[in-house]
C-alpha cells in the first residue's frame, strides 16, 4: 500500500469529509468558521435543534413511547459512597443545562426551557430484605421496568438514575435519558465526568472539571442561524441529486406481513466475528486506502441485495456530527442520520464496489450537516405509517468506544437487561474490540423470527469470510457463496428438527412401555 493510501485509511470521518470536499472541488471547510456564541439567559427559552425537533414531533404522534430511551445499567461491587455519587450527579446536572431542560410549545412553536437549577436526589431501593435467591430476579425486573418507563417531555427531568442495593457491597445502577437530550457520545461524556467527580468528592475535594464554554442551547441557536441560505442550498442540492426521484424501498423477506402501523417491538441477537477474520478485513481496508466502515457497508449492501434481489440499496447510518471543538465535551443530541445509497448493478467485483462505496460515503460525510428531518421535508417522500421514511435498515460502526466507569474501591461490570424496543426493521451495530468485531442485530419482532436473524447473521459472517480472502470476486460469485451457506443452514435446521421429533417420539414410546 502506498504512503498516500495509508494516510487515507487512517483518516477520521471528519478528515475524510474534507478530502471529499477537495476532491470534488467544493468550497468551504469541515468546521464552520462561524463560532458558536454563548446566548443571553434572560428568558431561558430557546429553539429546538433540528434533531430535537424531529424527536419532539415523533413524541407528539406517539406520546411517551420508550423507543427513544437511552438506557444504561451496571453492577457496582465494593464499598460505594452513595453521598459522593449523588453529589457527582448533581454537579453534572449543574454543569450541563440540557439535563435541566424540558420542552413545551408557545404560540404553536416548540421550545426548550432550561430550569435555573435542579436538586437531584438519588433514589435507593433496598432489596436486602428479600431472600437472597430472589434479589437477582428483582434487580432484572426493576431494570427492565425502568428501561421501558416513558418520559413526559414537558414535565419532570429527562434523566433518571436509580440505585438498587442488594447487600452492603453489591449495588446496581440504572440510568435512563431521553434521546432528545442525549446520544451515544453523550454517554461517554457523562461517564467520564461522573468518574472524575466521584473520585474528588469521595476524598472531600472540590471538582477539578473546567467550566463549559457553551451549552447545548447555544448550539441549537447557532445551528438555526448557520444552516440557511447558501449553506442550506449546497447541502440540499447534493442530497436531492443523490436521493431524488423514486427512492427504492428495501422489502426484506419477513416471517410475517408488515403491520399497517409501524411497531417498535424488538429483540437483539449478538454477532461475534473471529479475531482472525476481523484482522483480515482491517488489512483489506488498509490495502485499499479506505475505512473499515466502507468495507462493512459494501458487504452489508451485497447481503441485502442477495436477500431482496435488487441492485439499488439504501441504508442509514449515524454520524456524531460534533464538528466544532466546543461541542465535544457537551451532553446533548448532536448525532445525525445519513442516508447511503449504493449501486450494485453490472456485477462488479467487490473491489470495484468498494470504489463506489468510498465515493458515496465520502460525499455523504461532506454533506453531513443537513439534519435528517430537513432532508425528509425536502424530499417529501410518500409517508407511510408502517415504516420509517427514506430507509428501514441501518448499519453503524462505533469507532469511539464508550469509556468504562472506574470508581475508587469499586468493581464495575455490565448488567445485561433485555431491551424490547427498536426503531427500525433491522439495525446492525458493530464495535471494534481487542477480540475482534462484535455486533448486535436489532430487529422488529413483528416482522422477523429469531431463527431468521440468526441465519442472516451466519450468512453475513460467511460472506465476510469470502470477501476477506477473495476481494476480487464478482458479486455473482459472492451471492453464490451466500446461497450455499443459506442452503447448508436450512439442511442443518431440518436435521435438528427431525432429530428433535425423533427424540420426542422415543420419549413417548418409553412412557407408553413403562405403563405396560
UniProtKB/TrEMBL annotation:
Domain Condensation: 44-488
Pfam families in the cross-refs: Condensation (PF00668)
InterPro entries in alphabetical order: CAT-like_dom_sf, Condensation_dom
Protein name: Condensation protein
Species in which this protein is naturally found: Brasilonema octagenarum UFV-OR1
Amino acid at each position: 500500500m502506498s504512503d498516500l493510501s495509508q494516510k487515507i485509511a487512517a483518516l477520521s470521518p471528519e478528515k475524510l469529509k474534507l478530502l471529499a470536499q477537495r476532491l470534488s472541488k467544493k468550497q468551504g471547510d469541515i468546521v464552520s468558521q462561524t463560532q458558536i456564541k454563548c446566548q443571553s439567559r434572560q428568558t431561558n427559552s430557546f429553539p429546538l435543534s433540528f434533531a430535537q425537533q424531529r424527536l419532539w414531533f415523533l413524541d407528539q404522534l406517539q406520546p411517551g413511547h420508550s423507543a427513544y430511551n437511552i438506557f444504561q445499567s451496571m453492577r457496582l461491587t465494593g464499598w460505594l459512597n452513595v453521598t459522593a455519587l449523588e453529589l457527582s450527579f448533581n454537579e453534572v446536572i449543574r454543569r450541563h443545562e440540557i439535563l435541566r431542560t424540558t420542552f413545551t410549545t408557545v404560540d404553536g412553536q416548540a421550545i426548550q426551557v432550561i430550569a435555573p437549577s435542579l436538586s437531584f436526589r438519588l433514589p435507593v431501593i433496598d432489596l436486602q430484605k428479600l431472600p437472597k435467591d430472589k434479589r437477582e430476579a428483582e434487580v432484572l425486573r426493576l431494570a427492565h421496568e425502568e428501561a421501558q418507563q416513558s418520559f413526559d417531555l414537558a414535565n419532570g427531568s429527562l434523566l433518571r438514575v436509580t440505585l438498587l442495593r442488594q447487600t452492603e457491597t453489591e449495588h446496581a445502577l440504572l440510568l435512563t435519558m431521553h434521546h432528545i437530550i442525549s446520544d451515544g457520545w453523550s454517554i461517554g461524556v457523562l461517564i467520564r465526568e461522573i468518574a472524575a467527580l466521584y473520585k474528588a468528592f469521595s476524598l472531600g475535594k472540590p471538582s477539578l472539571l473546567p467550566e463549559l464554554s457553551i451549552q447545548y442551547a447555544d448550539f441549537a441557536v447557532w445551528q438555526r442561524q448557520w444552516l440557511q441560505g447558501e449553506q442550506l442550498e449546497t447541502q440540499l442540492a447534493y442530497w436531492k441529486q443523490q436521493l431524488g426521484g423514486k427512492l427504492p424501498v428495501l422489502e426484506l423477506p419477513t416471517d410475517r406481513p408488515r403491520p399497517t402501523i409501524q411497531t417498535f417491538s424488538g429483540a437483539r441477537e449478538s454477532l461475534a466475528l473471529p479475531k482472525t477474520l476481523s484482522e483480515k478485513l482491517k488489512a483489506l481496508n488498509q490495502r485499499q486506502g479506505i475505512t473499515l466502515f466502507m468495507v462493512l457497508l459494501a458487504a452489508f449492501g451485497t447481503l441485502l441485495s442477495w436477500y431482496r434481489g435488487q441492485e439499488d440499496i439504501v441504508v442509514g447510518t449515524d454520524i456524531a456530527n460534533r464538528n466544532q471543538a466546543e461541542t465535544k465535551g457537551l451532553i446533548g443530541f448532536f448525532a445525525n442520520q445519513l442516508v447511503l445509497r449504493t449501486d450494485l448493478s453490472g456485477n462488479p467485483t467487490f473491489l470495484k464496489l468498494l470504489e463506489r462505496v468510498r465515493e458515496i460515503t465520502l460525499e455523504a460525510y461532506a454533506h453531513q450537516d443537513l439534519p435528517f428531518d430537513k432532508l425528509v421535508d425536502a424530499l417529501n417522500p410518500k409517508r407511510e405509517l408502517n415504516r420509517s421514511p427514506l430507509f428501514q435498515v441501518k448499519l453503524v460502526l462505533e469507532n469511539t468506544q464508550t469509556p468504562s466507569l472506574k470508581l475508587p474501591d469499586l468493581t464495575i461490570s455490565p448488567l445485561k437487561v433485555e431491551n424490547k424496543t427498536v426503531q427500525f426493521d433491522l439495525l446492525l451495530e458493530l464495535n471494534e474490540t481487542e477480540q475482534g468485531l462484535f455486533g448486535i442485530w436489532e430487529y422488529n419482532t413483528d416482522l422477523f423470527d429469531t431463527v431468521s436473524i440468526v441465519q442472516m447473521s451466519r450468512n453475513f459472517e460467511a460472506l465476510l469470510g469470502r470477501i476477506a480472502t477473495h476481494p476480487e470476486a464478482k458479486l455473482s460469485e459472492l451471492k453464490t457463496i451466500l446461497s450455499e451457506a443459506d442452503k447448508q443452514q436450512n439442511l442443518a435446521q431440518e436435521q435438528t428438527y427431525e432429530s428433535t421429533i425423533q427424540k420426542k417420539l422415543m420419549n413417548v414410546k418409553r412412557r407408553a412401555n413403562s405403563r405396560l
